[in-house]
Amino acid sequence: MRVRILIAVALVGALAGCQESGFDESKETQRPLKVQDAMNPLNGTKVPGQAERPATPTADTTGDTLALKVEPVVASDVPEYMRRQAQGVRVVKDTDLSAIRAGTPDVILGTKEKQGSEYGDLSKIAPTIMTEGDDWKLNLREHGEALGRT
User: Fold this and answer.
1) Which of 43, 63, 83, 108 has its CA 20 to 30 A from that of 132?
2) End-to-end distance of the chain based on CA atoms, in angstroms?
3) Residue 91 burial by CB count (10 A; 0-12/13-18/19+): exposed, middle or buried?
4) Contact 14, 114 (CB under 8 A)
């Protein structure tokens, strides 16, 4: 009988530990955030707490942004399979800096491999986060952090 009581108490304690912590994530994203990326691994890049107008110059960044339920204002690469989801997105040629600037993005998501040489020009338009490598899980996590979405 004692063992059953101990098991019941342990089960109640475990279930109580599964409740929501009460941490309000929305308060965390009201202030600008620093995101460490491929171009600024030590100091990071300051981005809006919750970006609403990203520019996405690659298919990967466009896909990640759409998956995180944020519509890019400008995209350079929208594959056929994303066209329906990206219907309202303005598509520009490669890294057309004037078209990206005209979109007035609040953050730019790119890759070091493809846009690394244009990082200086892109970062003059908006805070720019560059990922590196092809680990889609890490890249998606970094894009989510840059957009203020987890």
Assistant:
1) 83
2) 45
3) middle
4) no
Distance CA 38, CA 142 (A): 10
Between strands 107-111 and 33-35, the pairing is unpaired
**Token duo for residue 123:** 């970062």
Return d(Cα 3, Cα 9) in angstroms, integer.
10
Q: Which residues contact 146 (CB under 8 A, 6 or more apart)?
A: 35, 37, 47, 51, 54, 107, 109, 129
Structure tokens at 68: 């995180």
In this structure, are residues 53 and 105 in contact, taking their beta carbons and an 8 Å threshold? yes
Complete DSSP assignment for 18-74: TS-----HHHHTTS-EEE--SS-TTT-EEE-SS-SSEEE-SHHHHHHHHHTT---SE
Type of residue at 30 = Q
Q: pTM for this structure?
A: 0.79
| Residue type for position 44 | G
